[in-house]
Amino acid sequence: MSRRLHTTELGCIAGEDLSDLGAGKEGWLVDNPTLLVSLDTHSLALANRSLILILHWSQSISGAPDPDARQVVKIRPDLSPIEAEYVSAVEWLVFDDDIRALAVGTSCGYLLIFSVHGYLIHRQIVNPGKILKIRVRGTKQDLTQDTSPEEVCIVMPGVIARFEGSGIKNLLRRWFQETDSKFWDQEFYDANSEDYGNSATSLPYQLWNVSKYGLCADAAITGVMPPPLMEIQSSQRYYCAVTIGEDAVISAFRLSVDKNRSLVGAILSKVVPATFSTIASFSKLIWRSEEKPTKKPEAKSQPFARASPLTCLKDHPRKGEKLTLSPSGTLAAITDSLGRILLLDTQALVVVRLWKGYREASCLFVEMLARKDKAAASRWAYDEHSKSDYCLCLAIHAPRKGIVEVWQMRTGPRLLTIPCPKGSKILQPTYRFSSATASSSSYVPLQVFFLNGDSGQISLLNPFLH
Predict the structure, then answer these.
(1) What are the Rab3-GAP regulatory subunit N-terminal domain coordinates in residue numbering (predicted)?
(2) Quick one: DSSP state of residue 301?
(3) Are 453 and 425 in contact (CB under 8 A)?
(4) Distance CA 455, CA 326 (A)
(5) Whole-structure pTM over 0.70, yes or no?
(6) Which pLDDT tens digit goes with each residue over 68-112?
């Protein structure tokens, strides 16, 4: 079928400013493994090892991006040249009250948060090591569950960290309030200041070691899970995590929020720091040292919480490469090095579907409008639809075949096959955090966008099935 029937052209991002990222060369968007892309509804972030480029656009009356309103922001993060630090992950943070920011991960394990204008808001060490991916779980829903937890998940080789979405939102709200109150204070915006972006209090988070079956190439926290059998019920919360990598195609872990410390360890963790602080204060009173420290204390990550292995699938030489999670976390699409795509039920931890012959593929979950009967045909003329009108599907981009296929979940047929030009990526706007004013009539489905790097064209996959 013709591509025009299934996609809507939205605009073009081409410009001279993209030459800093290699634009102008054929295949620049897909051939560079260090080039990162993250999409928001009105912005596109592209990054290489040392430069982040944010493209903003406003919408015209038709709802498409207005090329004349295009704005560009360049960010050069303060990275450590000694450790050859570089940008390794980017993702948008979008909240219900128009608070937006860009989360950036580095190869040294730092999480940076920038405003849409390029100002550093927060800098924090997560854990020494490369941040592979930043995953945002908002209030997007599928047809099997009501809501998914609000969180920001940081994936590192053999490590998973979890930040509460509410904590990040409160941090951003405070920063924007301070920004408004100090709007005319130019020193406040000095992004090169040594202390800029280093808040006194770091964001709380949980950290788990999931390297029992080898270092992971990708991972995700799929949601809350019940405690293990024969364990006393408590108020502690458990999460399920799925990892993929070279040594194990799929691994699953039960993540505990508590650190599983003994009674003696819990007492020592409280007594020892207090005792040390008392001794230090007493020594200062005696010697009254006036010598100021010339070096900032080295940032340290927190200890690991308990991660219990649940299952593992090893199938040498197959290696897990990419993982895509459904909105509720109940399904995960996993690509491997042998050109297969596995659909995993993350609750039963069972592979429920398998595709073959999709080398170098990438997957995104999408929601499509499915007309169920003729009596409902008149409703499709209206723009507003409820959640029940959509069916969950999986979009598979097979670059070697030059197509994008849309399959209905879980065991449904292939609904669409769309040609996709060489040098293109499929993208999806980041999940938006909860909105108190959201209603079923204003439900925004999961959408998939096409970005053609060679032409600069952005197009949207139409949700209608013709």
Answers:
(1) 28-427
(2) P
(3) yes
(4) 30
(5) yes
(6) 567 899 999 999 999 999 999 999 999 876 789 999 999 999 999
